[in-house]
Design brief:
17 strands, three-stranded antiparallel beta sheet, 4% helix
Length: 204
């Protein structure tokens, strides 16, 4: 049996419904993905009201919504623009000098300037408050929501697992929910998938 989250993922992560036969005409802002056998939203569009809507020119697809790219925020005109200091490389020898993004969050061998936080709302739209860390800070998950046709297309991202045509985060911790914003960590070991970050509420 197909896990129920796969169905939810179809709806909420730009796999907008309509299981189809090859050659079936898809709706506006959609195209037929032969490797999946479904109509999917175009790369710059997200699922909305049973169909798809295009993101603004200054936005990117962030999971199942439109938002500013990592390192950017909406400016006074409501347009995504580079946020000074956010995402800048840093380490012990090169501190973060921006008053807002003055915390150097190190993951692996590299660090990036960001801000400390307590809840997701304190972070930009494409970031999550990593409250599972000893010092919570706003962070991103690279590649989350990117389209893919196979594992190799996600391998270099934090979202390194290709599921239903999109890169998702695998290997999260259930109960900790160390996942992108608006997703939760669910255990799909029964299906040989391990733990995955999936749309909130789609674990069962």
């Amino acid at each position: 049996m197909t896990p129920r989250w796969f169905v939810a993922f179809v709806v909420t992560s730009a796999l907008a419904g309509c299981l189809s036969d090859p050659g079936t005409t898809c709706g506006p802002l959609m195209h037929y993905a032969s490797e999946l056998g479904v109509c999917v939203c175009d790369d710059h569009a997200v699922a909305h009201a049973g169909g798809c809507k295009v993101c603004a020119d200054d936005e990117i697809v962030v999971g199942d919504t439109c938002g500013c790219a990592p390192g950017q925020l909406k400016d006074g005109q409501g347009v995504c623009a580079q946020a000074l200091g956010l995402g800048s490389p840093c380490d012990v020898a090169s501190a973060c000098t921006n008053a807002t993004y003055n915390y150097c969050a190190v993951r692996g061998a590299s660090g990036a300037c960001t801000s400390r936080c307590a809840v997701d709302a304190e972070c930009p739209a494409s970031y999550v408050c990593a409250d599972w860390e000893a010092i919570p800070s706003c962070r991103t998950f690279t590649g989350y929501g990117a389209t893919c046709a196979g594992p190799s297309e996600c391998a270099s991202y934090d979202a390194s697992f290709c599921a239903q045509g999109h890169c998702v985060v695998q290997g999260c911790t259930v109960g900790t929910d160390d996942c992108p914003r608006d997703t939760a960590c669910c255990d799909f070991s029964t299906y040989g998938l391990g733990t995955l970050c999936v749309p909130a509420g789609a674990c069962s």
